[in-house]
Amino acid sequence: MASGGTFFLYSLGSNDVLGYATGGASNPALFTSEAAFSGALTAGVGALLKANPNAKGAIANIPDVTELPFFNTVPFAPIPLSAAQVSALNANFTGYNGILAALIANRVAFGISEALAAELAGRTITYQTTTNSATTNKILITDETLTDIEPYLNILLSLNQITAGQKAALQPYRRVRQTRSTDLINLTTSSVIGTVVASNPNFLNGISVPLGWTPASTAGADVSDPFLLIPSETTEIKNRITAFNNTISYFVSSTFGDPMVLIDVFGALKAVKAGTASYKGSTLSASIAPPFGVFSLDGVHPNARGNGYIANLYINAINSRWKSEIPLVDINSLPGNELPIP
Asked: Any idea of the CA torsion for 168, 174, 177, 183, to the nearest 10 degrees?
């Protein structure tokens, strides 16, 4: 700007939520606060306008990263199992499921509320034989929002209803459930599900033991946290994005002289996700699948078609605001991902 530049494109904030989200909301240090973001935005754009007070610019808001293919490619029930596997697994979880049933049946004696009884009922672990795509199985995970059943295991031990060995074997399952449609499974988690843990064929990741568990795991630890987003984490991320975007929108609309235009990347991804975005008859999809998917194989970054779509967002907004005549990108001339998709 100080060297004679008159126009800038500015984007801030996606990585302030993205790293936290792709890590399963497990590292708060990667989650920028609203105050820090507001300060960075004001300082960054302020420096540009200070260098050239007459400059114009286009500022993008932040997409809802939870709608990226990274979180929407692996289904919540992706596991095929044979009849023999199902029989063995269901037999192995008979004791655990029996304890849940006993706690529910004797909830008054155990001081268990109706709400907790309903939660425990939803934590029963069952598997079914895969005969078609509708009978794939859910992933076994830990969930930090669930009630730790350790105190109830201690009561059962004191009443001689379980042995010390049984209690020890139940430690990885103190806060477990199987995945639901509201859970968002990380794309990279697909390479972990079903793998053998600690060279023990009885320990199958996300099937017989909770996803991410190892024999060295701390008892009751939320070992599955890095591999997916549970609903409370998704809501937390969405709320932070909304706050950032409100800050961006207010900043653009309130800047003296109105030198900037807002690029609605948030709304653009919503349109792609909803299947309402197209270019010259070609629908754009929020996926990695060719030919119409606009994301690269990492499920996060746009591919060439996706970048063309975003470029046109900028061009249309700039042309509309300043009556310029920048030509649009021909998205259909740009390559998508190639088959086969890994």
From this structure: -130
Q: Which sign does the torsion angle of CA 59, 65, 70, 72 carry?
A: negative
Q: Which domain holds residue 224?
A: 83-137+140-178+184-228
- Count the alpha carbons within 13 Å of 216 in the hemisphere toward its beta carbon: 2
Number of structural domains in the chain: 3
Instruction: Measure the CA–CA gap between 169 and 93, rounded to whole angstroms.
Output: 11
CA distance 180 to 228: 11
Same structural domain for residues 38 and 68? yes
Instruction: Please give the chain's pLDDT, 342 residues, in tens.
Output: 888 899 999 999 999 999 999 999 999 999 999 999 999 999 999 999 899 988 999 999 999 999 999 999 999 999 999 999 999 999 999 999 999 999 999 999 999 999 999 999 999 999 999 998 788 999 999 999 999 999 999 999 999 999 999 999 999 999 999 999 999 999 999 999 999 999 999 999 999 999 999 999 999 899 999 999 999 999 999 999 999 999 999 999 987 667 899 999 999 999 999 999 999 999 999 999 998 999 999 999 999 999 999 999 999 999 999 999 999 999 999 999 988 777
Q: Whose structure tokens read 């968002």?
A: 184
Within-domain flag for 125: yes
* Maximum pairwise Cα distance, the chain: 82
Same domain, 215 and 287: no
CA atoms within 13 A on the CB side of 225: 16
Q: Which sign does the torsion angle of CA 90, 93, 99, 100 carry?
A: negative
Phi then psi for residue 196, to 5 deg, are: -80, 130
DSSP string, 252-267: HHHSTT--EEEE-HHH
- Taking a C-beta distance cutoff of 8 angstroms, is the pair 10, 59 a contact? yes
The model's pTM is 0.94
Residue 314 tokens read as 């900028």
Distance of CA 163 to the CA centre of its chain: 39
